[in-house]
Amino acid sequence: IIAETNISGHEITDRDVNQIVAQGRKHFDKDELEILHCIPTHFKIDDTGGITDPIGMFGEKLSTALHVVTCSPTAIRNIINCLARCHLNVQEFISSPFASGVACLTEDEKNLGVTLLDIGGGCTSISTFSGGNFTYTDSIALGGNHITRDIALGISTSTLHAERIKTLYGSAISTGADQHQTIEIPFLENESVDNIHYEEMPEMTQISKAKLTSIIKPRLEEILEISIHHLESSRLGGVIGSRVVLTGGASQLSGIKELANHIFKKQIRLGKPEHIE
Question: What element of type H or E holds 127?
């Protein structure tokens, strides 16, 4: 949203910036949403735009574009209640995509423009940074757990063994040798793949690594292609830069950089938390 205030020619101070942010938050006072972040992405003084820090400057009118991140109050209450039962108090909430960006991205990436995909277990978080600011966030309800379940169903084994096989042998790209490399797995015949309790050693069977990759690759392609669709729908295509950073558990799959490069047509880097103070 856009917020503005009159400064009547005096020097801009922290108070003016806080006032314009508070003005932006008022737009959501009547909404049934909890505000997590209200972040100024860039400022404009009179007719001069593209200002990152207006403090100490002069002008008649100060305006800014605010990136407001909201969430369900019910989700907030449930998290607080869960942690209270563990005798823990919540000091502050932060959006997961924002936290991933702070942890994994370099200052140059955030300034020049970058997209971050955090491929977690239950969902994939999408965030963009430009001009040093957090400019967009979204998520899709697909992640590494869905890949694990696909493997469990595709080769008739438990989710526990499917997760282990994914971690040890999973790949997003096939090679010529995959057809000849075999993987030994516990075989579950006529049983549910979700609730297995072994009283004796299960029967073992073998599959090729090529078959495992043929199960993993379509789900990863779906996650990446839906992420692109969300970014295109956000109309941020011109400011997300030429680099995509992948993080999260599923980003550790072999070959994911090459697959993402083919789909995004951008530079791909694997991110990990660094320099956290």
Answer: strand 124-130
Rounded Cα distance between 260 and 248, Å, is: 14
Global pTM value: 0.83
Q: How far is CA 34 from CA 25, 77, 98, in A?
A: 11, 10, 16
**193 and 159 Cβ atoms separated by less than 8 Å:** yes
Going by pLDDT thresholds of 50, 70 and 90, the confidence category of residue 10 is confident
Closest CA to 228 of 82, 106, 117: 117
Which residues are bridge partners to 37 per DSSP? 69
2 burial level (CB within 10 Å; 0-12, 13-18, 19+):
exposed
Nearest to 128 by CA among 118, 119, 137: 137
Query: pLDDT for 213-247, tens place per residue?
Result: 999 999 999 999 999 999 988 876 555 678 999 99
